[in-house]
What we know:
Blueprint: E1 7-12, H1 20-33, E2 37-41, H2 46-49, E3 59-61, E4 89-92, E5 98-101, H3 104-113, E6 118-123, H4 125-136, E7 141-145, H5 161-182, E8 185-190, H6 197-206, E9 210-212, H7 220-232, E10 238-243, E11 255-258, E12 264-266, H8 269-281, E13 285-289, H9 301-319, E14 325-330, E15 333-338, H10 339-342, H11 354-361
Parallel strand pairs: 1-2, 1-6, 6-7, 7-14, 8-10, 8-13, 9-10
Antiparallel strand pairs: 2-3, 4-5, 11-12, 14-15
Amino acid sequence: MSHPIRRIALSTGGGDAPGLNAVIRAATLAGLNQGWDVVGIRDGFNGLMTPDDYPDGGVVPLTRDVVRNISHLGGTILGTTNRGNPTAYPTQQPDGTWVEVDRTQELLDRFAERQIDALITVGGDGSLTIGSHLCKAGLRVIGVPKTIDNDLERTTQTFGFATAVEFATECIDRLISTATSHGRVVVVEVMGRYAGWIALHAGLAGGAHGILIPEIPYRLEHVAAMIRQREERGAKFSIIVVAEGARPVDGAYTLLGKDVGGAERLGGVGEKVAQELSVLTGKEARTVVLGHLLRGGQPVSFDRQLGLRFGAAAVRALEDGLDGVMVSLDPPTVAYVPLAAAIARLKTVPLDCDTMLTARDLGINFGDVPPLVERS
Length: 376
């Protein structure tokens, strides 16, 4: 049986997402109500790995005063990073070269030195993979799923997704006004990496005429045919929503480069699509890249509530003696699933889901088939 908990730590890693501060507030208050000390680790695990870089030592007490009135704030009061993986930590050698070093045991020692009995790690697949590794190495870990991309398995939805979709939809609403005024094609590129959840949901809600997602390799000839068809019936404008991971049939992903650690940085496909559609249709096409705007700003009420529910559920998991699990939205409740199962694979858009079927019924073009032949 696990030894009694006296102190827990929270860490937030990977890309920021609206709702992170709600998780921090709920986990802190729930932990304090158990009689536990609660601390926060700065910038993922960097606060423990490089404590001298922080004036406060990299680990800060989380009190009621610290977490008061933060649920509505975007970002994370603890900071975050997608660098500094303790299992492959970039380390400079005496000769100036850089190698990746496994600093897992050193990190575990830092937890022990701080008398931290358990960790609640809030993150996407990268952070939860690290959490799973630390759990196998002997640390008690509970994971909380976080990503605007909604691409984590074993949870119906992640917090941050609803806010990203809401903002993207608002942007599409605004772009329809200017596209209509000028009779243009406007291509809206959104985040999502290798999953098309944001593009699909925002595109459908915003009234897009074409949606390109990673799950369906596209042929722009089909999209161009749809645009020409709209032109023939007097609709001079078209809105095309493109996920950053969309790619043509037999084509590659469009990359901006690679992050530290080798992860691909997707982006730029929207401009390529706009240029090609302009050639194919003869119409003026413009590109709008929403990018990190989707991560920022205040979380909508759904994400605030989901963050609060996840944070409180993570503490309940520890109270119930659980270890190596991720909290998961399983409406109408929050459930617990093994961390290993949650990170086993990417959750992509099922092509037979109701949202996809609705989009098809409305005639939205996904670049895989020609537009519907309109009946007279």
